[in-house]
Amino acid sequence: MKKPRFPKASIGAYLIAIALAIALPILAFVALLLVQLENNERDVLKRDTVQDAQALARTIDRQLQDMATTLRLLSSSPELERNDIATFFDRTETVLRTDSLFVLLVDKDGQQRLNTSHPFGEPLGKTANLAALHSALDSGRIEASDVFIGSSSGQWVYNVTLPLYHSPAGAALIMTQSAEDLGKLVTTDALAPGWSAAVLDSSGHVVASSGPANHASGDAFNRDILPKLIASSGVFQDEKILPHALLGYAQIPGWSWKAVVWGPVASAQASLMSTWRFLIYGGVTLLLIALIAVYALARQVRTTIQNIADMADRMGRGEIVSPIDTSVIEANQMAMALSNASFDRSETEDRLHFVMHELVHRTKNLLALAQAMTRQLARQTDSVDTFQRAVADRLEGLARSIEVLTSEQWSGVSLRRVIDIHLATFLQGPQQLDIKGRDFLLKPEAVQNLGLVLHELATNSVKYGALSAPEGKVAIEWTNVESDIGQMIRFVWTESGGPIVKTPTVTGFGTTVTKAHAAAAFSGSVEVDFRPTGLVWVLNALRSTMERERERN
C-alpha cells in the first residue's frame, strides 16, 4: 500500500492548514498591492477624469446642436426667400418661445436686419462680433464664436452663426445666448469635492465654469496648460503647473470649444483608499475568526459540502435541482441559491432564445423596410444629392419611431405620443394641431408604419400645405367603424388655413408611402382628396393591425 504523502488528520486540521496556506501568501501579496494601489488608482482616476470631460463635452454639444438645428429650421422659412422680414420676425419669436435665446439676421457687413431682443422696426447697428461672422462666412459652415461682451445686454455672450446662401434677406442667421445661461449646464455634481469644470472657447477664454476655481466668463485660462491640450481628449498633469492636481479635457466634436475638468488628486482618491483599507483590515479579521470556527464546524461541513457538491454537479449537467435541508443555515442558503440559479438558468436560456428570435425578426423587418424605401427612392430621384436627402429624411422619421419603441422596450406606444413625436418639429406652435380620438396602444409594427406616413404627410404639409403658413392648421381624428371584415378605425388628416391646394400632376415616393404602403400595412384603404381649402387624407384600417392587445394577468 502506498504511503500517504500527508499525515492523517481531521477535516478541521486540514481546513486550518489550507486556510493558512492560502491566507499567508495572500497577505504578503496584499502588502505589495498596497504599495502599487495609489498608482493604479491614479490610472483609474485619469480615465474617469477624461470620461467626465467627455460627458461635459457631450452636454455642451447637445446645446450647440439644438441651436444649430433651430437655425437650420428658420433658414428654410419661406419668408426669408420672399424677404418678408416682418413675418419672419413673428415666426422666429414663435419658434424660440424663450427669453434666453435671441436670433439675429445680418448682412455680410454685419448690419443687423432683425434682432429678436429688440422690437421689430427699431433701428439696429452692426453685430458686436464681426470676426465670428466673417469666419463662418469664409468657412461656409455653422460655427460657435468665442465669448464676448454683447452690445445689447452688456453681458458675456456667444454666437452660433449659420451662413445663408443666395438669400435676399441677409448673409447669415445668428443665435445668441448668454454665457450665464450656458453655465447652468456646467455642473460639478458628479465630480469629487474640490473639483471644477469649465468650457473654453477657441482662444482659450472661459465661456462658462463652476466649482471652487471660480473662473468668470471671459477669463483667460492658464496659458501654460492650453498648448498641451492638443489631442481630441486626454489628461494633463504637471506638478509645477498643477501641484497635486489632475486635469482632463475633451474637444467638443464639430466645434472649436473644449470641455475641461480639474481638481486635487487626494480628494478624488480619498474614498477609494479608505474603502480598500477597510476591506483589507476586515478581511484579516474575518479570516482569524474563520480559522477559530473551522475546527468546530468541520464534522457538519463534511456532509454539507458533499451534498452541495452533488447539487452543483447536477446543476452543471443542466438539471433543475431542489434545495436540501442541512444543519448549517449558510449551507441551506447556498442550496436555495443553487436551486434558484438552476431554475433561473433554464428560464434565462429560454428567454435568450426568444430574444434572439425577436431580434432577428425585427432586424429583418427594418432592413426590408429600408431596402424597399431606397429602391423606391432610387427609381424616383434624378441625382445622388436628392437621393441622399430623401433617404436621410425618411430614415430620420423611422429613427424617431424606433427610438420611442426602444424606450418602451418594444411593447407598444400610444397613438397620441406617436403623433406628437413625428409632428413636434414641424409645428410653429401648438395651436396648429388639433387631435381628437380615444387614445390606445399601437403595435410596434404600427408605430413604424404610421410614423413613416405621418412624417411624410407633415413634410408635404410644411412644403406645400397648411403647415407652410403660420395660420395653417392640421386636424387629426380617428373613430371606430364596424364593417363586414371586423372593427375598423377611420383615421382622418385634415388641413386648413394654408395656401390653395392643387392636385399634383407628378407623384413620388411620398405618394407611395401615404397611399400604397399605408393601405397595405394596415389591411385597409386610403382616400386622398385635394380640396382647395386643404388636403384631406383618410385611412380605413383594421383595428387589429394597429392596436396592441393588452396582456392578461
UniProtKB/TrEMBL annotation:
The reaction(s) annotated as catalysed by this protein in its Swiss-Prot or TrEMBL entry are: ATP + protein L-histidine = ADP + protein N-phospho-L-histidine
- Enzyme group, top EC level? transferase
Specify the Signal transduction histidine kinase HWE region domain's residue ranges: 358-439
Question: Which terms in the Gene Ontology molecular function aspect does this entry carry?
Answer: kinase activity
Q: Which InterPro entries match?
A: HATPase_C_sf, Sig_transdc_His_kinase_HWE
- Record SMART domains: HWE_HK
For this UniProt record, the keywords arranged alphabetically read as follows:
ATP-binding, Kinase, Membrane, Nucleotide-binding, Phosphoprotein, Transferase, Transmembrane, Transmembrane helix
So what EC number does this one have? 2.7.13.3
Q: Which residues cross the membrane?
A: 12-37, 278-298
Instruction: Tell me which Pfam families the record gives.
Output: HWE_HK
Protein known as: histidine kinase
